[in-house]
Amino acid sequence: MARLILQRIEVEGFTSYKSAQAVHFGGQGAVAIVGKNGSGKSSLTSKALTWCLYGRCSPERMGNSTRALKGKPLISDGSPSARVSVILEAPTADPAWSMIVIERTKEVGGRETVTMTRGGGETTPSQAEIDALIGATYEVFTRTVVRGQNDPWSFAEATDSRKREILDAISGSDQLSFPYERAKAIRKHADQTIERCDREIAAAEILVQRNSIKCVSAEADLEHWNLEHKSRVDQVSREIKALRSQEKKVKAEEDEEARKAKELAKELANKPTYDVDPYQSSLSEATISLAEITTKISAIQREKATFTELSPGDPCPVCEQQVHDNSPALLRYQELDAEEADWMDQSDDIREHVGKCKTALEQYRDWYAGEQSAWDAKVADLQPRAMVGGDMLRESIRQAAERIEAIKAESNPNERLVVRLREDWSEAIRIQKRAAESRLYATQHSQHAECWERTLSKTGVRAQIAESTLAAIEVEANRWLSALSDGMSIAFPPTREVKGRVKEEIKTIVQAHGIERDLLTFSGGERRRVNLAVDLAVSRVSSIGSGLHLSLLVLDEEVFSGLDEEGKASVATALVGAGVEDVVVIDHDPRLLYTLSRTVEVEKGPSGSVVREITA
Question: Which of 91, 318, 357, 435 is the most exposed place for a label (fewest CB within 10 A)?
């Protein structure tokens, strides 16, 4: 694919840029982005560019770790969303397809979208499609194209592990990680297959031996089962015969119980009736009459008592005259005496009648008790007795018949067992053969995968690629140092000797006028030149060897910091001749206006950051 040129970056609602702003590039060489601290220089270029393409900003060093800004903090205060558009140009025969617009939007509510417009059509690209268009993943892009503030990927001052990560990224050897892990997984799977095959072979051998022993035992079990089967049939046959004999007895008992049930129903219908009402009524009437007569006799006796103690000459209580032989009182006494005798006769008759009523009642009760006792005894004798149910007995006969049929239908399982054991023996032999063949194939597969694993490991071809890339960086860095300094050179030996043995460790060795010195012993300006030369070398090697399509280098802060005028002139010359379509230098030093041919100034006011291009 032809190299991409960054035409411009447009931002709105992004960090400090509340209103729509744009910065133009277009392959015009080196450009300086200047402004005060916090004005939004990095946000306009490195952060906006990386976020638009990859969904997160370029990483910055935070203590001992790195952090990349993303999410809600990217949206300007008071803005409903953040929008960044990156316009790229790809030289092509059809002008309609030359311009590519990638736009990413982040809303306050959390929704984030990305679109790509080319040739009049808009699509929603995947991250893999954007990576393929740019020719770099986020990790490669932030190690080669965008060098942010507090850059954790400064090659010259990086640790051995960091250097190797950068080498893998810019050389493309990190793409060998997948086939390396694949070869490693294949080898591991093949080894597991070998172990499984060994287990299968051993298990099959055990099966062969066991099945030989089981076949002998199964034949004896076959004969034993036949004898036991005949015994079970005979036993159930005897059980059915006994049940049928019992069924006849139960049938006779059931008939007898049915006869008793009929007699019981008849007796229950003729149960003796207990009716003492006539006797009770006669006794009650006689008792009432006796009570009435007794009351009258008592009244007569009380009245007679009033005359009993009277003597001739006493005043009569009836007529108040003196009592004499023919007085009314004497006559009344005589009348009462006659009435008393008459009622006494009636009382004796009624008492006799009461006694007869009581005797008749007692006789009736004795009779009824005898009748009831006889009836209870007869009914008790006719009550049904507990017995084995005929239905249950017949169900037992039916079940026994089914059981004997089921037993007769049984087949000797040992017949199938003998056949199965012989089949298992044959199958065990086949398993042994298949497992041996699989083991042979897995062994070959494991050996091939192990060869690839060693070849693709960090000590294999990846180490050779890294050494080749390291040598190219060293050549390019020294070429830039010859232009940026006087008599300085740099080397990156991949190994060093420690206590008589070789250790894999990439060191940074800087020489000044042929004398080797520690990088920390150089001045700040000299270190800036060394780091810039190495960064330009890394960018150059990356653009040539890694498949990077975008021709761009962003250097954020401190490129010119600490340099004298001669050093700034050397750096400016180097940047102009860097061989990259656009080199962006971000710094707060306004004197860059007189160092590079183009300068863009960023100012931050109450309404947010504003961009304007100024001329020297």
Answer: 91
Which of 98, 88, 118 is closest to 7 using CA atoms? Answer: 88
Gap between the Cα atoms of 302 and 63, Å rounded:
138
Contact 593, 616 (CB under 8 A): yes
Cβ burial, residue 32 (10 Å; 0-12/13-18/19+)? buried
pTM (two decimals): 0.54
Q: Tokens 């080898």 identify what position?
A: 187
Positive or negative: CA dihedral 420, 422, 425, 427: negative
Residue type, 2: A
Cα distance between residue 445 and residue 194, in whole Å: 10
Joined tokens for residue 280: 């009770």
* Of residues 186, 160, 5, 148, the one with CA closest to residue 549: 5
Do the Cβ atoms of 347 and 293 come closer than 8 Å? yes
pLDDT tens-digit series, residues 411-443: 888 888 878 888 888 888 888 888 889 989 989
The Cα-based distances of 539 to 140, 169, 473 in angstroms read 11, 11, 9
Which pLDDT score is estimated for 564? 66
Work out the pLDDT band at 13, boundaries 50, 70, 90: very high
Residue-wise pLDDT for 182-230, tens only, equals 888 998 999 999 999 999 888 888 888 888 888 888 888 888 888 998 9
- Average of per-residue pLDDT across 323-329: 66
pLDDT value at position 115?
95
Whether 443 contacts 197, CB under 8 Å: no
By the 8 A CB rule, do 64 and 604 touch?
A: no
The 8-class DSSP code of residue 326 comes to T
Cα gap 242→198, rounded to integer Å: 62
The pLDDT value recorded for residue 372 is 84
The three-class DSSP label of residue 54 is helix
The pLDDT score that the predictor gives to residue 1 is 46
Tokens for 431, please give them.
């398993």
Rounded CA separation 295/489 (Å): 161
In which element (H, E) is residue 186 found? helix 177-269
- CA separation for the pair 179, 191 (Å, rounded): 18
Report the mean per-residue pLDDT for the chain.
82
User: Residues 6 or more apart from 446 whose CB is under 8 A from it?
Assistant: 187, 190, 191, 194
Question: Rounded to an integer, what distance in angstroms lies between the CA atom of residue 197 and that of residue 205?
Answer: 12
- DSSP code for 591: G
